[in-house]
């Protein structure tokens, strides 16, 4: 099979495949072609891809028309879908709940689409889980940004002129991003508190050296994929009261609450932000999906009562080299798992739990019921 990897959307510094993954794909028996200049944003040369066994070309259109598999990180542009041949397999993030039109175009073109965000959260699929790999790096980047913006240092420091107390960091949400944020803030020497609606994550928080904030919300839990369940209005109010108290004591607050396919829950109100100390920092990691913080704006830093609210999008792109490496590994592991060594083809085995979950378009049909219903509703609205 011929695999084609082309350059990402302008402004995206990450890339889908790095040379190490090219070597793995070649060992499987795949033919790999990459667009010239693919990874210039992370200082990987075309010659590095050639040494790994890939062909490098500037003929993007020709390769899209002839490729058996197209690999990307971001969703494809609609005009690119029209170039792909019927029966082609497209693998990337698709953001399908916000971008349902792409699903219809893929189905109409007869292109099969694997959505990397829809990889099930199972033990065997962990090595393919790009949402987790990118979220982990986002958690790291959020803390580094906060540390750079804060007008004080994170660690305690004992000097001849006096002792400096450690910065207080409050992290809301202890999923993949939150746990990495906790670990990073602790490494920098901050005093860290964390809250999550799932009491079961307390042990993980504590194992990283942070204090878990307990709030009695009644019955809470998590989905089969490990996400926190949506709270009732009453539970949200109890949570906000606790958040306000701990945010007021913090120098840095980082909000990480988001679930793929749903708008981010509003956690910090404007009044809660105004109750924080002047000079404090808030990093809203969910700003791209609506935001956890009232008043946060995508790719802007807003001053609210002397508190700097940071809403930077694409946080993994801040550490693009490692983000590309991890995503590339996710792709390589997915392809290797479903690769038929005898025929040298990628098997779209829908009887497999992983493939059944992530193969959202196949043979002209949108397979996922929720996504199909979403597309149908959009079509009826015109």
CATH classification class of the largest domain: Alpha Beta
Write down the overall mean pLDDT: 94
Strand content: 15-25%
Continuous helix count: 13
**How far do the termini sit from each other?**
38 Å
Work out the oligomeric state of the chains in this entry: single chain
Structural class: alpha/beta
> Going by CATH, what is the homologous superfamily of the largest domain?
NAD(P)-binding Rossmann-like Domain
Q: What is the molecular shape?
A: globular
Can you name the CATH architecture of the largest domain? 3-Layer(aba) Sandwich
Rg estimate, integer Å: 22 Å
The total tally of domains equals 2
Mind explaining what this structure looks like?
By secondary structure, the chain is α/β, with parallel strands linked by helices. The chain is built from 13 helices and 19 strands. The longest helix is centred in the middle third of the chain and has 20 residues, at 130-149. It has helices spanning 19-28, 46-52, 60-66, 78-81, 100-109, 130-149, 176-187, 202-207, 233-249, 270-274, 320-338, 353-358, 369-381; strands spanning 2-5, 31-35, 55-57, 69-71, 89-92, 112-115, 157-159, 162-164, 168-172, 191-195, 211-212, 252-255, 281-284, 300-304, 307-311, 339-340, 345-346, 359-362, 365-366. It folds into 2 domains: 2-128 and 320-381, Rossmann fold; 132-313, Rossmann fold. 36% of the residues lie in helices and 18% in strands. The radius of gyration is 22 Å and the shape is globular. Strands 3-2-1-4-5-6-18-19 form an 8-stranded mixed β-sheet, sandwiched between helices. The mean pLDDT is 94.
